[in-house]
Amino acid sequence: MKRVIVISTSLRTGSNSDMLADRFVKGALQTGHEVEKISLTGKNIQFCRGCLACQKLGKCVIKDDADAIMQKVLHADVIVWATPIYYFEMSGQMKVLIDRMNAMYTLDYQFREVYLLTTAAEEEPEVPQRAEGGLTGWIDCFPKSRLAGTLFCGGVAGPRSISGNPKLEEAYEMGLHC
């Protein structure tokens, strides 16, 4: 059994990336993993100030929701990021959280597998490449971990327009095999 943290970064109710996250969760639960889904909706996550105090303290000096999320990420076996693609990049919320988890750089971490689930209005296969590159930059800072899988669903713009899309089943299967 693995401890799986799924971070849904879309702030839109009924978002397509959140629906992919839910299907991944369902698959991982079906396998018997311990799964927690964290939605960034309603979370207070401020911008990194670049003070680097976190490198000495092991936590950020800013008092908001980022540190609690980081603690869960540190102790998970699998991390799953779900994000809409905006202007060919991960959501701003996802990037801000990644920046705020800078305190993890000097700490021991448990996760080995990282997954990325993305959705976008555009359909071209290269659409998620910048988001994947950004996440890979974060993963590279944690050499015991790796990008274990990615899933992109294009052509979905409106809320819940992913309904009935075969990519939902792919997300479920990915969760089964994480």
TrEMBL record:
- SUPFAM superfamilies, sorted: Flavoproteins
Origin superkingdom: Bacteria
List the keywords (alphabetical). Answer: Flavoprotein, FMN
Could you tell me which Pfam families the record lists for this protein? Answer: FMN_red
Organism of origin is: Bacteroides mediterraneensis
Name of the molecule in the record: Flavodoxin family protein
Entry keyword annotation includes Flavoprotein: yes
Domain (NADPH-dependent FMN reductase-like): residue spans on this chain: 3-106
Establish whether keyword Heme is in the entry: no
Which segments does the entry list as coiled coil? Answer: none
Query: InterPro entries given for it?
Result: Flavoprotein-like_sf (IPR029039), FMN_Rdtase-like_dom (IPR005025), ISF_SsuE-like (IPR051796)
